[in-house]
Design goal:
The structure is a homodimer. The first copy, chain A, has 3 helices and 6 strands. The first copy, chain A, has about 130 residues and is α+β, with helices and mostly antiparallel strands. Strand 1 of chain A pairs antiparallel with strand 4 of chain B, so a sheet runs across the interface.
Chain lengths: ~130, ~130
């Protein structure tokens, strides 16, 4: 369960059941105070975090050593309301000592089998992956 | 654009284009260190934040005065991989000086017209609202 409480303006604080807190906010021109993530960008963070955990976990089990792993997630929104993402692009950059084929297999297992976030978004947006 | 960088274990840091940062992590039994939100719970925070901003903004434009506004968002996950949310329940609690019909209308406008997050998730999970 996540509890999301209004603070002021359009700023909210989200708290999970373990007590972690994050600020959700929007641009000042919309009535926000720009103190935290935009709601929809939390989807990008969740999607990247979900795939990232799968890939790092699987690649390490295959014996890969990871020095750095970065995902850049961006979305294109529809012009008309409700302005959902029509396309999300995920760019993966992995540095370390690993086999390329193991990275690709880890990515495919996440995309096709394990990642809950991919499963939730693939029916509403085109997902593009660059790896 | 959101940049999500691996830290250690299964802990990641997400940073948006304005420099806001959040920690994404998981349970220790899965290899995480429980220092931040779970990836999929960011979807709940994003969904609640998106609807919350709509409702607060519209209700205030209708002359309502809000003392407190809290959304509790919870999800039921499938047992089998990819374990996506099959049902998400959102409970709204609004206290203040406003007309009940204005709150309901603000909620309906968010759900049916404005909320990008609802539009992205309604095709993959049953959404239940308690208001």
């Amino acid at each position: 369960m996540v509890k999301v409480s209004w603070c002021e303006g359009l700023r909210f604080e989200a708290e999970d059941r373990h007590g972690h807190k994050i600020v959700v906010d929007t641009e000042e021109k919309f009535g926000g105070s720009d103190q935290g993530f935009r709601p929809l960008e939390l989807f990008l963070a969740g999607l990247a975090g979900c795939m990232g955990m799968d890939i790092v976990g699987i690649l390490q089990k295959k014996g890969g050593k990871i020095d750095s792993f970065v995902i850049e997630a961006s979305g294109i929104r529809a012009e008309d309301h409700p302005r959902k993402y029509t396309k999300i692009t995920m760019k993966f950059k992995c540095e370390g000592d690993y086999k390329r084929e193991d990275l690709l297999r880890s990515f495919e297992l996440s995309r096709d089998k394990y990642c809950s976030a991919v499963a939730m978004l693939k029916s509403s947006a085109e997902l593009e992956f660059v790896i």
